[in-house]
Amino acid sequence: MMKKLIALVLCVMMLSGCVSAMADEADKTNLGTLEVEDAFTLQCVLPAGYKVDVMYDNPDYHVAIIYSEDESKPQMYLSVAFDELLADVERLNDLDDEALAQVEQTFREEDEVEITHMYTSHGTKLLMVKEVENGISYVDFYTIYLGYQIEIVMNYGTGFEDRQITEKQIEMAVDFLSDLDFIPAS
Predict the structure, then answer these.
(1) How many domains does the chain fold into?
(2) Tens digits of residue pLDDT in 163-181
(3) Distance from C-alpha of 20 to C-alpha of 53, rounded to nearest angstrom
(4) In a domain, 179, yes or no
(5) Which of 49, 50, 69, 109 is most buried by its number of CB atoms within 10 A?
(6) Which residues contact residue 157 at a Cβ distance below 8 angstroms, ignoring those fewer than 6 apart?
(7) For residue 145, what pLDDT band results from cuts at 50, 70 and 90?
(8) Which domain holds residue 75?
């Protein structure tokens, strides 16, 4: 009897998760992609009203902006850069504790930050770095894939430096980044 009850509870939890996921998908309208040479394609489903524009693209460095025409919403700068020191690292997930601590230290050198770890639905580990010194003026999401450092920095950009990122906006970014996927080149 107890096993049946546990199975029923698990079924209800899984169904509610599916319904929640479908509701979340209704808010996401378009797929953003960035092709990185012959290595991989980076893709995720963007929040409603956001677009991707590639600003700079060469073999070792790529920059795109993820933005909304609504100036009340923050923009996100995506940078992808190959790092020879990380050439043998397939994913951020593969770093040991010492190497991960060294990566985290690079974010702590300039500002007072809070660093947390999150995972995409595809299992990719992301560092979420929030500036906490004078409110949250930026949030940096960081990972590694095939020796490339991938960063998505959310802020308001030039002319809006006085605006702060809200927890709701961070949740929006976490939500769409949970779909972040790397598709290896064939």
Answers:
(1) 1
(2) 889 999 999 999 989 989 9
(3) 30
(4) yes
(5) 50
(6) 74, 75
(7) very high
(8) 29-184
- What is the helix (H) or strand (E) element at residue 18, kind and residue range? helix 2-26
Confirm whether 7 is domain-assigned. no
pTM value is: 0.80
Residue 148: inside a domain, yes or no?
A: yes
Question: For residue 86, how many C-alpha atoms fall within 13 Å in the half-sphere facing its CB?
Answer: 23
Q: What is the three-state SS of 82-144? A: ECHHHCCCCEHHHCCHHHHHHHHHHHHCCCCEEEEEEECCCCCEEEEEEECECECCCEEEEEE
Amino acid sitting at position 122: H
- Which residue, among 141, 128, 162, has the nearest Cα to 44 in the 3D structure? 141
CB 77 within 8 A of CB 50: no
Classify 23 as helix, strand or coil.
helix
